[in-house]
Amino acid sequence: MAASPHSLSSRLLTGWVGGCVWHLERRSVQESPHKFMHLFRSINKQWITFQHFTFLKRMYVTQLSRSLNQQVKPKPEPVASPFPEKTSSSQAKAEVYELRPLSPPSLSLSKKPNDKELIELESASIIEGSVDVGKETKDEKQWKEMKLHVDDLPGILARLSKIKLTALVVSTTSAGFALAPGPFDWPCFLLTLVGTGLASCAANSINQFFEVPFDSNMNRTKNRPLVRGQISPLLAVSFATCCALPGVALLTWGVNPLTGALGVFNIFLYTCCYTPLKRISIANTWVGAVVGAIPPVMGWTAATGCLDAGAFLLGGILYSWQFPHFNALSWGLREDYSRGGYCMMSVTHPALCRRVALRHCLALIGLSVAAPILDVTTWTFPVISLPINLYISYLGFRFYRDADRKSSRKLFFCSLWHLPLFLLLMLTCKQPRGGGSDKGEPQS
Fold first, then answer.
1. Is the dihedral of CA 202, 207, 213, 214 positive or negative?
2. Is the pLDDT of residue 39 over 80?
3. Of 404, 402, 327, whose CA–CA distance to 360 is shortest?
4. How far apart are the first and last CA of the chain?
5. What is the DSSP letter of 151?
6. DSSP per residue over 197-238, as a string?
7. Does this model's pTM top 0.70?
């Protein structure tokens, strides 16, 4: 049976199309691995380029922020105007820091940096930072000459002589002079105060001269003039000499030799015994209490010219008062004294420190009772001084029991007002003296 022309043409078309399709399929199968690898390579290159750009962007942001942090400088404090001015809220919220211009001035964050700009920015910041660090270390290591201005000299010498301690010494000396029997001699009183003050300044200056290496290790004393180098040691010794010689001369020839001898002995005891003993034994506290007890005795001898029971009573009061005062003070400075190498009761014998403070607080009550017995005050004095003596004894007991900074601080501040109030009460209850030897003589 003969085939129709339509079926033949369809067969030929199908065979030609099938061959083309087969050829295309075979070619696509052969070339597909190459195209796939080429596509993977191109995608991989694009991914690496994007990752590299992200890395460079992060480097740029990090380097820029680091350079900004290095270039921050505190704004200089404005000079206070002598006239009162009203400040607005916008001025109160002014910026505290200002930025110096970057080395590449026209660099913006929006612009994509290239490698060259990043290298220039990094090298500029490193060079600038190294120059600043080198300049700072050079300034720190360089010796600076201390210049002494004449206007600052009185304040420096006042701190060298421990002006507050000297004022306490002078006040106790004046109390001893006022409590002594006999008429009040104003010229002798003034000479006694000036001589005692000069002797105290000399002793305190020599004490600071000897303790410079140890004071530099303590927070309490590291700002003293000799430690900071505000004055030279030669000037300190010269000042002490210029205070000691006229002070002793005034006490010896202006008052009496006994008072002058007590002044010399007190300078020697403070500088040559108490000062070196602070690094050897806790006995320095008892020696220092003797040093503090001598000034009221000097006031008594300046008025009477002799040592009697009233002088020793005043010395005993100052002697006992110093233990609660100093032991409470040293309790809060134990770390400082230990760092400075001082042998203090609060550091080496803390229980003894508290016990001695309480013991001498109670001793003040007994000394108050002894004052009218020795004919220094009337019997009113033990009664009116009993409340303050009981209060300081109570704080001494709290310090002995609690052994903490709070109780020691309370005892120390109580001792600051206890002594002047105690001496003032003694003055108000001073024993009146008789009119004279001719009081009972018959009239002619």
1. negative
2. no
3. 327
4. 199
5. G
6. HHHHHHHHHHHHHHTHHHHTT-TTTTTSHHHHTSS-HHHHHH
7. no
Query: What letter would DSSP give residue 150?
Result: G
Least confident of 39-53, 186-200, 203-217, 333-347: 39-53
What are the residues whose beta carbons fall under 8 Å from the beta carbon of 341, sequence distance 6 or more?
A: 214, 217, 279
How many other β-carbons are positioned within 10 Å of the β-carbon of residue 212? 16
Q: How far apart are alpha carbons 138 and 39 in whole angstroms?
A: 61
Average pLDDT rounded to a whole number, residues 44-64: 57
Strand partners, 99: 72
- Cα–Cα distance, 347 to 374 (Å, whole number): 38
Rounded to an integer, what distance in angstroms lies between the CA atom of residue 224 and that of residue 235?
14
Q: Are 174 and 299 in contact (CB under 8 A)?
A: yes
Three-state DSSP state, 98: strand
Gap between the Cα atoms of 274 and 211, Å rounded: 12
Task: For the chain, state the CA radius of gyration.
Answer: 45
Contact call for residues 348 and 331 (beta carbons, < 8 A): no
How far from 234 is each of 45, 211, 229, 246, 301, CA to CA, in Å? 80, 15, 12, 19, 34
Report pLDDT digits (tens) over 327-360: 999 999 999 999 989 999 999 999 999 999 999 9
Which residues are CB-contacts of 323 (< 8 A; sequence separation ≥ 6)?
Answer: 285, 289, 356, 357, 359, 360
Q: What is the pLDDT of residue 184?
A: 92
Token reading at 349: 């014998």
Token digits for 416? 């600051």
Classified as helix, coil or strand, 437 is coil
240/366 Cα distance (integer angstroms): 38
Alpha carbon distance 245, 20 (integer Å): 130
Higher-pLDDT residue of 435 and 417 is: 417
Record the tokens describing residue 241, joined without a space.
């000499």
Distances (CA, A) of 153 to 157, 200, 327, 338: 6, 19, 33, 32
pLDDT digits (tens, 9 = 90+) for 300-324: 999 999 999 999 999 999 999 999 9
**Cβ atoms of residues 315 and 297 within 8 Å:** yes
Distance, CA of 312 to CA of 300 (rounded, Å): 9
